[in-house]
Amino acid sequence: MIFIDACYCRKTPRPPIWMMRQAGRYLPEYREIRKNHSFLEMCETPELVKEVTLQPIRRFGMDAAIIFCDILVPLVPMGLDLSYQEGEGPVIGNPIRTLDDVKALKDPDLPKEVGFLKEALKQTRAELDPDKALIGFAGAPFTLACYAVQGRGGKNFEVLHRWMFNEREAFDTLMSRLADMTIEYFRLQVAGGAQAIQLFESWGGLISAYDYLHRVFPHVQRILASVKDLGVPRILFIKGAGHFRNFLNLANAEVIGLDWTMPIEDTRRILGKNKAIQGNLDPSLLFASHDLIRERTLAMIEVNHGQPGYIANLGHGIHKDTPIPAVETFINTVKNYNPEE
Ligand code: CP3
């Protein structure tokens, strides 16, 4: 599988490609199914998860499928009241605000409470082309806490940001509890058939390098170290991590995902030859002309100078109103790439 080979820095005939958030709302066939089901209902129904996970693969032929779910789903068995509201995104009805709230979180029985995800992975793996990898995922503790403490989406998550300094014990305990859950969650996904796992740290770049290193990174390191024995490649994607890229090498990940603000060449120099890199086309480029998409995609590949361990992807999730022909151009440019030409 060229995706797995690239994760372990083995040579591949061309870079593998997939897109973050590839299973979702930019696809008309997703919106068609979504008309009849709530988002959470879809996540909990293995047949629908399989269908939606495979939709982008059928249409575009990416080298990896990411299982359809959401990073916030495992917060429900911990006792959080999660809903997705039209035009607003995720909302937590009972946000965590005190140490007592953290202590009141349940130790979830994941096999029982999110067994639907394991079943969905099993069914999807059975139907997915054997040359293509199935990726499982989880949210990193800081990003999960952004929603669990703030209560809803936003751009700055100032409630959590202040809470980190004012409620130190609550913050540190919450990070630890979320890390414990995430380790079990990854184990369940690999048991279901996930062949690689990605930790999404979408909001990690909001805080200083000092605070990330001292208060957050140890939890990320512990999660990834605790799943090493599963023998699947571990991908860490932190959005906006440029100011602390110097210590990403210590993350216990085989692959580091970059957003478009972190230059590939420079980051490769810092991380060295044994780390694979994933990313990092600006998702907004998919609104540009086909010529520009092609040009920038080729430039992104070539900046790796043929060094193994490169996975083509966007630098963050695909925008929901992205035109389908632009996605085709992006994917086909990578799939038709021939280093000899
Ligand atoms: O990558 C994939 O295609 C697999 C599925 C997936 C979803 N969410 C489905 C989804 C993945 C990997 C995620 C991750 C996720 N969810 C992250 C990390 C990555 C990132 O984008 O930063 C975050 C922060 C969330 C939280 C979340 N879930 C938000 C903010 C929203 C609403 C806005 C949005 O981006 O869609 C969701 C809902 C959600 N998750 C949808 C989908 C397809 C839309 C649900 C709908 O149909 O209305």
Biggest sheet architecture: 7 strands, parallel
Shape field = globular
Please report the first level of CATH classification, the CATH class.
Alpha Beta
- How many structural domains in the coordinates? 1
Oligomer designation:
single chain
Rounded to the nearest angstrom, the distance between the terminal CA atoms is 23 Å
Short note summarizing the structure:
This protein is α/β, with parallel strands linked by helices and 341 residues long. It has 14 helices and 9 strands. It has one domain (2-335): TIM Barrel (Alpha-Beta Barrel).
Record keyword descriptors for this entry.
9 strands; single chain; alpha/beta; binds coproporphyrinogen III; two-stranded antiparallel sheet; TIM Barrel; 341 residues
Write structural notes for this entry.
The chain contains 14 helices and nine strands. It is an alpha/beta fold and 341 residues long. The strands form two sheets. A seven-stranded parallel beta sheet has the order 1-4-5-6-7-8-9. A two-stranded antiparallel ribbon has the order 2-3. The longest helix is centred in the middle third of the chain and has 25 residues, at 168-192. The model has no long low-confidence stretch (mean pLDDT 97). Coproporphyrinogen III binds at residues 20-25, 34, 39, 66, 68-72, 84, 89-90, 137, 143, 153, 200, 202, 317. Coproporphyrinogen III (CP3) binds at residues 20-25, 34, 39, 66, 68-72, 84, 89-90, 137, 143, 153, 200, 202, 317.
